[in-house]
Amino acid sequence: MILLRNATTGNRGAGRTPLDWDSRLNISLGAARGIAHVHSEGGAKFIHGNIKSSNILLRGGLDGCVSDFGLSPLMNHTHIKHRVAGYRAPEVIEMRKATQKSDVYSFGVLLLEILTGKSPLQYTGYDDVVDLPRWVRSVVREEWTAEVFDMELMRYQNIEEELVQMLQIALSCVTKVHDNRPNMDEVVRMIEEIRHPELENRLSSEDNRSKDSNVNTP
């Protein structure tokens, strides 16, 4: 297995094979499903607490697998702070309050990392942190949205709409008010709709036909 961080924002020297958009979309969906599973197993009690690209492992088929679950409670707060700096939600920074919605925020930062090719950590030292959500918002606000995306993705044709859809999902995850963030099941559904829009349209059409057939005619 390899780390997502190494595949997206790691060394970009000669000999490196860049991840194409389909691979990044598949990894995002796999990671989202993994976090959603963690959340669903314990009701509101289970929190990952350490979501970042170096904790996403890529299997042979480039499926994203979430690692390091359950280790955060074993560490002191200072250690956790440095391990997840750049991925932490505002309420975790200000009140040290981690919830499933703070996991959603961290996952949103992860999506931004996948989309932009930029890391919220510079890895020269854990104090060297980039506020990736704020940078993305500033670029989008100036209507330079295309400047957000990783240049390695710009070589692929006909993916602009999907990139923007994923960006919108990521930004909904990193909104500052935690109650306004989607839960992970909703995030999974939204990413699935990017992957299989024709399936969603077909299911919607089938549901409408089913409802029409149940209407009593006078």
From TrEMBL:
The keyword Magnesium appears for this protein: no
Domain Protein kinase: 1-199
UniProt keyword Transcription present: no
Keywords: Kinase, Serine/threonine-protein kinase, Transferase
Top-tier EC class: transferase
InterPro entries: At_inactive_RLKs (IPR050994), Kinase-like_dom_sf (IPR011009), Prot_kinase_dom (IPR000719), Ser-Thr/Tyr_kinase_cat_dom (IPR001245)
Record EC number: 2.7.11.1
Annotated Basic and acidic residues bias: 199-212
GO MF term (any one): protein serine/threonine kinase activity
UniProt-listed SUPFAM superfamilies: Protein kinase-like (PK-like)
Chain residue ranges for the region called Disordered: 199-218
Protein name (database record): Non-specific serine/threonine protein kinase
Lineage, broadest ranks: Eukaryota, Viridiplantae, Streptophyta, Embryophyta, Tracheophyta
